[in-house]
Design brief:
123 residues, 20% helix, globular
Length: 123
Amino acid sequence: MPVAEQELTRLTGRSPAAVLHPQADGTLMVEVPDVVLPAGWSMPSTIVLWVLSPGYPAAQPDCFFADANLRLANGAMPVNSGLQQLQGRQLLWFSWHVQGWRPGHDDLVSYLRFIESRLADVR
């Protein structure tokens, strides 16, 4: 069983609707619906997605995606974001990169925490 599938159990313990979507190119797309957003966003919650390369967990996740219509509460686009297609879906791409990834210690839950910390930094 691939590492990500083993880690999914821990992720669904935190976000029960989280799923992995195997892709034809060998990557896995992680989907976590209904991530609650703090004040300062245009929506109370969003879907988040990220892609795992076949080299995961040695190859760390990079960037993440959210609902295409997610904006700051004032209507502005978030910093380091833009609209992008992912598997035929229009989504809001966040160009944010985790620093200090530790394979064997960091996992899908720690990456979700990284995303949540970015979303808590409303700008």
